[in-house]
Amino acid sequence: MDHEYSKTAKFRFYEELNDFLPFDKKKTPFSYHFDGTPRIRDVIEAIDVPHTEVDLILVNGKSVGFDYHLLHRDRVSIYPVFESLDISPIVLLRKKPLRKSTFILDVHLGRLAKSLRMLGFDSFYRNDYEDSEIISISLKEKRIILTRDRGVLKRKAVTHGYWIKSTRPEKQIQEVLRRFDLFSQIRPFHRCMMCNGIINKIDKSTKMHELPTATALYYKEFNGCLTCGRIYWKGSHYNKMLARINELVNSQ
Q: CB neighbours of 180 closer than 8 A, spacing ≥ 6?
């Protein structure tokens, strides 16, 4: 016998939050049936929307936090992150917004990590990170979690994260740039694509013994990673990478 709930609230999700919803709930108000007075954060995640994707909750026209307890006949409007509009005076969700975009990526996003580093963004990645380790580093270093696993973003401890929707690496980097409005912060070739370390110019004479003979003869300018020691120069791959960067910059 089906349980009959005693209370009902109306929900409406906006913009990209609809990506998490079944077809019959997309871009339209729908009823949510419940008992008691559940926390609105728990209700949002029961509907299968990670709380880290939400930036503004209005209940009966007033902004509330995740600890608000849902009441019978509440009308709830839920919005994603506002990229170009400052809504900080009315948002009651996060006490500590991040002013600087640094990231930690899960094990499925290695190519995205390299792309972010190529553009100069501080991006932690290892292919053996456990979920608990990702969350711990995110909290300790104030890094945004990028993941393909919704379950990670539903963990209570997580404060800042984003579910990557695309499965294609070339689309994923565009998605992140747009989601966090990073275009003005792009600094190409500032970070090592392999280890995330800072890249600086180096004196060619100090690295001659590490360079292939032809490379040492043909190229004059070299850069090196301060962390792993990897050496970079403007080889045949450079123009292709530059073209890709220009394509991304112009995709905003």
A: 83, 101, 144, 162
Q: Tell me: the pLDDT tens digits for 62-110?
A: 999 999 999 999 999 999 875 444 444 545 555 555 557 899 999 999 9
| SS3 at position 60 | coil
Backbone dihedral region for residue 155 (phi beyond 0: left; psi -120 to 50: alpha; all else: beta): beta
At 128-187, the pLDDT tens digits run: 999 999 999 999 998 999 999 999 998 988 988 899 999 999 999 999 998 888 888 899
Distance between CA atoms of 131 and 133, rounded to whole angstroms? 5
Distance of CA 79 to the CA centre of its chain: 17
Structure tokens at 12: 């409406």
Structure tokens at 250: 């112009």
| Tens-digit pLDDT profile for residues 192-246 | 999 999 999 988 777 777 777 777 778 888 888 999 988 888 888 888 889 898 8
First to last CA, the chain: 53
70 within 8 A of 43, measured Cβ to Cβ: yes
Residue-averaged pLDDT of the chain: 88
Q: 161-184 burial, b for 16+ CB within 10 Å, e for fewer?
A: bbbbeeeeeeebbbbbbebbebee
Please report which helix (H) or strand (E) contains residue 34, including its range. strand 30-34
